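Fold it.
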Amino acid sequence: MRIGIDVGGTFTDVIGIDREARVTVRKTYTTPADPSEGVVTGIGKLLAAAGATARDAELVVHGTTIGTNALLTRNGVKTGMLTTAGFRDVLEIGRVQRPAAGLYDINVDNPPPLVPRALRLEAVERVGSKGEVVTPLDEASVRVAAGVFRVEKVRAVAVCFLFSFLNPSHERRAREILAKELPGVYVAISSDVCPEFREFERSSTVVISAYLAPIVESYVERLSKRLADSYPSTQLRLVQANGGAMRAAAAKGRAVHLVNSGPAGGATAAAWLGRLTDEPQIVAVDMGGTSFDISLIAEGVAHVTTTAKFDGYPIKIAMDDVNVIGAGGGSIAWVDRGGALCVGPQSASAVPGPACYGRGGAEPTVTDANVALGRISPGYFLGGEIALRKDLAEKVIRDRVAGPLGLSFEEAAFGILRVVNANMAKGIAAVSTQRGHDPREFSLLAFGGAGPLHAVEMGLDLAMKRVLIPPYPGAFSAFGLLVADTRHDFTRTVMISQEDLDPAALGRTFAELEERGVAELEADGIARKDRRVLWSADLRFEGQSYELNVPVGRKPKPDVESMLTEFEKLHERIYAFKAVDERTVVVNLRVTAIGVTPEIDLPRPAKGTKDAKGALKGRRKVYFGGKGWVDSGIYERAKLKAGNVVAGPAVVEEEISCTVVPPGLSLLVDAFGVLVVDLEGTR
C-alpha cells in the first residue's frame, strides 16, 4: 500500500491505495505539539480500515507543515548570519518597499528580520561580479564571528557572501571554520541553498533555511524513528514546495524546500486530474479547517514560481505558485468595532475547534454556520465518527453575530457564508484576474473537507465555466502526494547578453547541472527508464527587473534563436507587447530532474442512467439565502453511478466532505466519478 499524508491545521488526512487500486481514506485530529504522533495514528487507522497489516505500508509520502508553522509563528531556532563586510543590513534594507497589501496603511510594515542586527556579523572578504577574488577571505574574522555566536548560543548560522553564486570558495571555507568552532550548530551557505543573484532574496532564503533546519531535521528524524518502530517496511518521502517528492535523507540541508509543501500536493493532484479528464484550465481550491489554498492550472500544468514570498519573507526557490489565505471551516466570524461582519483569518483550529464539536469552542465559525443551516448533517460528519452539536452552533451564532447585528439567526449564519465566500473569491482573483487570466475560461476544482460546501456558490460569483468535485475531496491534497513525481531543481546564474550567447558554453553549463540532477535521482533509487530531465532558462529584456522562464531543448548546443523567439512570444502573451528593439539577457539556467511516479488507476463508478434515486437517502430543510429553507434531497456519493444527474436543491454527502447544489442547478457524475456542475447556462 502507498500512503499519502497531509497534515493540516485541524485534521491530518491519510489516503492509501493498494496494488488492486482499492482506495481507503481516513482523517484524524492533528497533534500540534508533535505532528508525527498524528501521522502514525492516522496510518494505523487507515491500515485497520483497509484490513491491512503494518508490513503492508510500503511507501509513505508526507506533505509537512512543520517548517511552515515554525515560520508563521516565529518559532524557529536562534540564528546568526555571516555576510560580506559592509552588507550586514541587507535583510533590513530589503527592496525599500512597503508591503503591497498595505501600501497606504501607516500601521502596516514589513516583518522584522529573522536574525536581529546584533547577530548579523561580517567577514572580511570580497568576490567580484565576474567571480574573481577581490579580497581573500580573512579567516580570523570568521573565527571572531564564531566566538560571538558561541556566546549568544545560536543554534544555526546562515552564510551569505557577495557573488558567492559565481564563486562559492569563500562560503565553503567559512562553513568549514564554523563547523569546527561551533560543533553541533547547523550551518547553511547560500551557494548551496540558493545559488542565484539578487542579494536580498538570496540572503532571506538562506536565513529561512538555517532558521528552520534544526526543527525540520528533528521532526524528520522523530517521524522516521516512529515509522521504523511501527511500520518497519516503510520508505518515507517528503513533498517539496515545488510539488516533487524527495527521500527523507535528502531533506537535511533543504528545510526551506519544505515550506508550503502541503498545499503543493493539492496543485499536483489538480494538474493530474485535469489531464485525466481533459480539463486543462483549472483554478484549484483546497478549503480545510484553517486555510484556503489556491493554485492555477493552465494548459494542464501547475504554475511554478521562483520569486515567491511567504508571510512577507522572500523565498527564492522553485515552488508551486499557491496563494494561501486564512479562510477555512474553522475560521472565526466576528463583528468589528464599526459593526461589520468579518470572517477569519483567526481560526478555532483543532483545539478547541468550532462550537459544534462540543470541545469547548466559544466562537462562531464557518463550520458552525454550515451545520446550523442544514448543509452539514450533524450525525454524518466524518462518516459519523464525530457527532456534531447543532444546538451549540445555533447558540454561538445567535449570541456573537445575530444579536450584535440585529439580524435573524438565519441571516447571520448565511452572512457568515457570504463573507467567507467573498474572501475566497478575492483570493482566487489574485491568481487569475490579476495575472491576466479570465476566470470565465476556467473550471473551479474544489476539494478539502469544506471546499465542496462552498464551491458552486463561489463558481457562480466568479461566472466560471463549471465546478468539479474530485473523488475523495476531503483528502485530495494527500492524494496529490501519491501522484507526485520525485523532483530536484538546480540553477546557475549566468547573466549573458544576447550577442554574447555561446550555444556550446550554454550546453556545458546545462550538462553540469544535469549531472547533479541525475546523481540525486540515482540516490533516490529511480530507474533509468523513469528519469526525465528538463532544461529551461530565465530571460528578460535589458533593463527589466524580472525574468520569464522558457523551455530549452536538450542539445549539446541549444538552439539560441528558438529560445529567444519563445521568450518574445511569452512576453507578448503576458504583457501584451514585446520590446523587439531591446537586447535580451539570459539570467539563469535551470535544470529539473524528475523521477516519474507510476500511474495510479483509480476505481471508476459503475455506469448508470440519469436517474439518481438509488443514491437518495432522505430529505431535509437546507437554507439558501433569499429562497429561505428549502426541502432538499440528500444523496450518498458512494452510491452514485456514472451518468447520474442530481437536481438541486441537494446535498451530496460522503465520509469526509459534502457538496451543496443550490436550487435551479444540477450535478452530473462523469465517467471518472467527478461531480460536475455546469455553470455556463447561468451567465
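The longest strand covers residues 486-497.
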